[in-house]
Amino acid sequence: MLKYAYYPGCVAQGACRELYLSTAVLTEALGIELIELKKAACCGSGTYKEDSQLLEDTVNARNIALAESLNLPLLTHCSTCQGVIGHVDERLKEAKNSDPGYFETVNGFLKKEQCSPYQGSTEVKHLLWALVADYGLDTLAKKVKYKLSGLNCAAFYGCYLLRTQDKLPYDNKFNPESLENVFRAVGATPIYYQGRTQCCGWPLSSYATEQSFKMAGNHIKEAIEAGADCLVTPCPLCHLNLDSRQPEVEKAIGEELGLPVLHLPQLVALSLGIEPEKLGLSRHVVSTKPVLEKLAIL
């Protein structure tokens, strides 16, 4: 049995609650045990370092140390959390040898707050990597009860999953295939388009809203023109810009879109025969009914 220290992050427990729900349902169905890190803090989504790199490193060293105390890898289901925490883990593992003074400074703050020290003894792993590298796509394919045949899925990787960490042992940074390989494993057809590895526009949305929406709109249009029935993303922040804000995106580009955007665990769980209502599919702003109708689930 696979077992992880589960870091759900902020967005999945709030605006994208359906991601939290579908991750729980999927992992239970696959026999993956999650020990939720209820004392973990927000990773900062890249904003802490704008004020202080030491702040970002210390906060996330504590998050990783919580997983280390359980002797488990830390599992995320958010590309942004993976990128931030994973990069901190890389940086501190290197600093342990190359800059021991900085390493001890970080642990000094943790000790002051009576937290477990960071040791660099575990791994930070996204749910996508856990499915591909730990569970295995051959094993996953054998679990499929309802092949998603005829469903054209367009991956949306986003920025953080591919480019934040220096090392990416489970995929190619510039020509990834992990999501597309998951699609194949569950019987769906991968759709390729230019924007699948680009930014969704979320980081711009607070200060350049129109540009953010136009960026998202261009990606959605490209996917539709390539024949996609839905987008599938491993990042809830991407989901917010592509799904929750799609009506605003339509106004910004002056076109109707209406493309459903699924979270990765929702798609995989559908192939296991799990009922849509257990996956929070009704919570989406853009209706997921066209996907369910194409799969003859409705």
The assigned structural class equals alpha/beta
Outline the biggest β-sheet: 4 strands, parallel
The string of secondary-structure elements, in order, is: EHEHHEHHEHEHHEHEHHEHH
Helix content: 40-55%
Mean pLDDT: 96
Q: What general outline do the C-alpha atoms trace?
A: globular
Rounded Rg: 19 Å
Q: Which residues sit in consecutive blocks of at least 5 with pLDDT less than 50?
A: none
SS summary, helix count: 13
Structure report:
- This protein has 13 helices and eight strands.
- With 298 residues, the chain is α/β, with parallel strands linked by helices.
- Helix 1 links the parallel strand 1 (3-6) and strand 2 (33-36).
- The longest helix has 20 residues, at 79-98.
- The mean pLDDT is 96.
Short description:
With 298 residues, the chain is of the alpha/beta class.
Which features does this protein show?
298 residues, 4-stranded parallel sheet
Which helices and strands appear, and what pairs or packs with what?
Elements: E1 3-6, H1 17-30, E2 33-36, H2 48-51, H3 53-68, E3 74-76, H4 79-98, H5 100-112, E4 124-126, H6 127-143, E5 152-155, H7 160-163, H8 178-185, E6 189-191, H9 209-225, E7 230-233, H10 236-244, H11 246-253, E8 261-263, H12 264-271, H13 289-294
Parallel strand pairs: 1-2, 1-3, 3-4, 5-6, 5-7, 7-8
